């Protein structure tokens, strides 16, 4: 597995990581045995970056990852997130970037993960009531204490990145990035990361599964799958986006790869580290194979013709969640 260095503080990770969220939340039914086997297989294939958050469950996903890594913690680069407050019994409170909560949440995450440190600690969402300098300052204290190795931000605006980076070096920014979601190319985020030497970690690089080519109807989702409320999977948006996927599938077939592999290879070609999420070994293996796919200039031209910036129909999330972005 190829590796890539995030930021300028020396964090080296596999060029493709594993998003673990769906193993515990938001994407329908879960299977702990298969999830553990998927994490095990990821490590065998050289995937080192394993991504979770205290909010996935809540807490359940961190506990799952802790169980998977018991006795072999050194094999993985563990990334988790804070800034969305939960009570110890799992009740959602809301955004909380206050220093006292950041410290308390990290200690709780360490217990759930069964480790004494987190390799990459993200601010999951910015708390609009707390200056980013205070939040990142508290996160920096965790680095000084040896509990955290590197800091990251998620879904932030360029001005926030700059303010945070001035307080403590930011190693990575995690944001949605795919053939369907290229907003960071025009809103200044990507340019800011390149200027400051901060790594890009792309979540949902398959457009929440849309770009896999396996979704043909909104009815494909279980009743508790959050994509049932995702605007891009609703009404006329679904048909328009499916037409784009059909074109991506055509290009992939000509290249003798799957649509997922083409979409992932495109993200990797942009210099990002991708963290496609899956809870099954067969999809993991398909995704990892994308790291061997070469994207040519001809491929880029063909992809740009069918999936230019802004091609996707519909917002990224339902309205109440859209308000939490670009803090």
From TrEMBL:
Chain coiled-coil ranges: none
Molecular function GO terms recorded: oxidoreductase activity
Keywords: Oxidoreductase
Record flagged with keyword Cell inner membrane: no
InterPro entries: Aldo-Keto_reductase, NAD(P)_OxRdtase_dom_sf, NADP_OxRdtase_dom
GO cellular component: cytoplasm
Ranges for domain NADP-dependent oxidoreductase: 18-306
Superkingdom, natural source: Bacteria
Protein name: Aldo/keto reductase
Higher taxonomy: Bacteria, Bacillati, Actinomycetota, Actinomycetes, Kitasatosporales
């Amino acid at each position: 597995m190829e590796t890539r260095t995030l930021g300028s503080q020396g964090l080296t990770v596999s060029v493709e990581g594993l998003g673990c969220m769906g193993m515990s939340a938001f994407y329908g039914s879960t299977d702990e045995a298969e999830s553990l086997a998927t994490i095990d297989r990821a490590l065998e294939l050289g995937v080192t970056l394993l991504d979770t958050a205290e909010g996935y469950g809540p807490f359940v996903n961190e506990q799952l990852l802790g169980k998977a890594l018991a006795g072999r913690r050194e094999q993985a680069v563990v990334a988790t997130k804070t800034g969305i407050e939960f009570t110890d019994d799992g009740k959602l409170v809301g955004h909380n970037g206050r220093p006292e909560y950041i410290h308390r949440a990290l200690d709780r995450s360490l217990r759930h993960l069964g480790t004494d440190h987190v390799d990459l600690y993200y601010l999951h969402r910015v708390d609009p009531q707390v200056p980013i300098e205070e939040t990142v300052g508290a996160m920096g204290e965790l680095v000084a204490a040896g509990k955290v190795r590197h800091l990251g931000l998620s879904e932030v605006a360029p001005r926030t990145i700059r303010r945070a980076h001035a307080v403590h070096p930011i190693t990575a920014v995690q944001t949605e990035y795919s053939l369907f979601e290229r907003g960071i190319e025009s809103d200044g985020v990507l340019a800011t990361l390149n200027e400051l030497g901060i790594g890009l970690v792309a979540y949902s690089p398959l457009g929440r599964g849309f770009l896999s080519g396996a979704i043909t109807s909104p009815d494909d989702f279980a009743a508790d799958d959050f994509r049932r409320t995702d605007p891009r999977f609703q009404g006329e948006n679904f048909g328009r986006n499916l037409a784009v996927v059909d074109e991506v599938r055509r290009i992939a077939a000509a290249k003798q790869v799957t649509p997922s592999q083409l979409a992932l290879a495109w993200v990797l070609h942009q210099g990002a580290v991708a963290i496609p999420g899956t809870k099954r070994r067969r999809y993991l293996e398909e995704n990892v194979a994308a790291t061997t796919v070469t994207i040519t200039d001809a491929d880029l031209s063909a992809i740009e013709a069918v999936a230019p910036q802004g091609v996707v129909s519909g917002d990224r999330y339902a309205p109440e969640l859209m308000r939490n972005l670009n803090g």
